[in-house]
Amino acid sequence: MTRLDAYLNRIGIARPSELDAAGLLAVQAAHRQAIPFENIDVRLRQAIPTESQAVFDKLVTQRRGGFCFEHNRLLSDMLAAMGMANRVLLARVTFGDPPALPPLTHCLLLVTLPDGQRMIADGGFGGTYCPPLPLADGAEATSGDGARHRLTQIGAPGTLPGEWLLERMGPPETSDGRGRDHAAWEQQYAFELADTAPADLVMGSHFASTHPSARHVNCHVASRVLPDGFVSLLERQFSRYRAGHPVERREVADVAEYRDLLAREIGVDLPVETLDRLPLWAGAD
Fold first, then answer.
1. Which residues are catalytic?
2. 187: which of 46, 75, 94, 224 fits an S-S bond (Cβ 3.0–4.6 Å)?
3. Model confidence pLDDT, tens digit, residues 115-151
């Protein structure tokens, strides 16, 4: 079995018959619905891989999840294997209105389809889910959870916070806790189209997984995109949102319940002994 075959089996779809926007959408949606976003290794102070084979082994062979640098490394490699040329871009996450301009701690993909159309794709933004968008000022898309997404050109190349801004308007319940208002556009992240070197991705991943100010160093997040919603474990709070259904929320009582929800709802099956080492349980009765 090739790596691409194993990946397609992991995300549960056949290889797209057309290398077009619809095919890209199908792959990215299946990726996010099958492979969870989770920062368990960050919270356990384990190294986060950015090399292709190490990421493949973790997310596909071991059936784990990961954060943006892992997800988009894998998605980039697999799209390239299908014939969709792409490269990795770096972004500044402005979701949740940080008090200062954040560093380049997120990544996404610029995909060039065989017909020449350029699109952004993102298999690893844990805060929300955005379908692929054409790289065009004012481009919009609606995701299955009912949220709208908009891409705006906001500056010249090399200016801060970036040349392009991704925004979202939708149910706050379909976010990782940072979403606020259904009826207002909220910034997600800003980016530009500059080339990146492998060392840039290593540096961004290292900061995001080790710096004392980084979000993933300070909170526990595990989530999975649903075709019509979002399910998450944020600290000890479990929530599930599906369009047209009441939001389900509850506090997780202990590590045994956390393990059950993580395996059954998110798709990450780890032993209690591993999860019990998370800072989440420090000081718990």
1. 68, 106, 122
2. 94
3. 999 999 999 998 899 999 999 999 999 999 999 999 9
Taken in order 254, 257, 260, 264, is the CA torsion positive or negative? negative
Q: What is the DSSP string of the chain?
A: --HHHHHHHHHT-PPPSS-SHHHHHHHHHHHHHHS-EE-HHHHTT-----SHHHHHIIIIIS---B-HHHHHHHHHHHHHHHT-EEEEEEEEE-TT--SS---S-EEEEEEE-TTS-EEEE-S--SS-----EESSTT-EEE-TTS-EEEEEE-S-TT-SS-SEEEEEES-GGGSSS----TTS-EEEEEE------HHHHHHHHHHHHH-TT-HHHH--EEEEEETTEEEEEETTEEEEEETTSPPEEEE--SHHHHHHHIIIII-----HHHHTTSGGGTT--
CB 120 within 8 A of CB 103: no
Single pTM value for the model: 0.96
Tokens linked to 156: 């010249």
Domain that holds residue 103: 3-281
Could you give the number of structural domains in the chain? 1
N- to C-terminal Cα separation, the chain: 47
Exposed, middle or buried: residue 147 (CB in 10 Å: 0-12, 13-18, 19+)?
A: buried
